[in-house]
Amino acid sequence: QVQLQESGPGLVKPSETLSLTCTVSAYSISSGYYWAWIRQAPGKGLEWIGSIYHSGNTYYNPSLESRLTMSVDTSKNQFSLKLKSVTAADTALYYCASKQTYYFDYWGQGTLVTVSS
Amino acid sequence: SFELTQPPSLSVSPGQTASVTCSGDKLRDTYACWYQQKPGESPLLVIYQDNKRPSGIPERFSGSNSGNTATLTISGTQAMDEADYYCQAWDSNVVAFGGGTKLTVL
To answer: From the list A48, A63, A109, which residue is nearest B95 (CB)?
Structure first.
């Protein structure tokens, strides 16, 4: 089955850019599927960040769209997230997931990103 | 974007039926799905496309979607079912999650 693993810095300074990568195993990204990022602030619910198709087409949460860039690297079987101008409100556990049209079927274990000086 | 509304909490006795609701206007036109999240774990898909169970999910989990309300039903609730449950829907390339319902089994 599909396996996903998030990686990236656990601490980012305010106003800087948060960058995360998700490495996919047991499935070739270029074969299809949508790929997504979801976050969960401490003690809070799930928030969809955005989705990207293997071709590079992207769909972003309107509330984050102005700060967000997602990309896919099929040669490395990875997809990535960049969120600029971060604040403490962006502190969260960030998950990557595989997405069928209507639902997320496989999730990574999540990586905690703290925004603090 | 659109919104999905869930009750923050629900309590049920072991062996009883738990019904978790999720309401939102867009549910009339799209599928709902449900995730279970236990402390320290990633969300787990338990129902997709309103009423389908992924492989490995017990039969006591079922779902329905009628009008503007989707419902996750857990029959014969067990202590291991204590968790947070989130509904989710997709419409026009935008995804929304409900705020989550904390299910307590006591």
So the answer is: A48
Residues 6+ apart with CB under 8 A from B93: A51, A59
B5 touches chain A (CB under 8 A): no
Measure in Å the smallest separation between the Cα of B96 and chain A Cα atoms: 7
Query: DSSP for A63-111?
Result: TTGGGEEEEEETTTTEEEEEE-S--GGG-EEEEEEEE-SS-EEEE---E
The stretch B74-78 carries a mean pLDDT of 98
Distances in Å between the Cα of A13 and the Cα atoms of A19, A49, A112 are 12, 20, 14
Interface test with B, best of A2, A39, A40, A46 (most B CBs within 10 A): A46
Residue type at position B42 = S
- The 3-state DSSP class for residue B67 equals coil
Neighbours of A93 (CB within 10 A): 18
| Token representation of residue A9 | 């810095």
Give the amino acid at A32.
Answer: G
- What local confidence, expressed as pLDDT, does residue A54 receive? 86
User: Is A33 a residue whose pLDDT tops 90?
Assistant: no
The mean pLDDT of B60-83, rounded to a whole number, is 97
